[in-house]
Amino acid sequence: MTKNIAIEVYGAEVICASCVNAPSSLDTFEWLQAAIPRKYKDQPFSITYIDIEKEPENDRQKDYIERIQNDEFFYPLVLVEDEVAAEGYVQLKPIYKELEKHGFTAE
């Protein structure tokens, strides 16, 4: 597999009110950044943190930010190749499942 898989984590410094006792969005981003390459060695991916309290870089990001702010999604919101993989209290299993749909294989 050679395609670089894009992962995006949308979040804010303040923990989501509905996600009490969950890690912060930035903690979730850093956790995924460390966990994914341990399970899927040498499989290319990029992971980006998008702060929902800052100006978005493009219309697609703006759309997701507005949807979070309108309570359509909880944050952190994790996208894999523009598909929602997890939101709120993020767990690894659904993210791994989404990565495997895109050809990732565990070693």
UniProtKB/TrEMBL annotation:
Pfam families: DUF1462. InterPro entries: DUF1462, Thioredoxin-like_sf, YuzD-like_sp. Coiled coil: none annotated. Gene3D superfamilies: Hypothetical protein sa0798 (3.40.30.30). This is YuzD family protein.
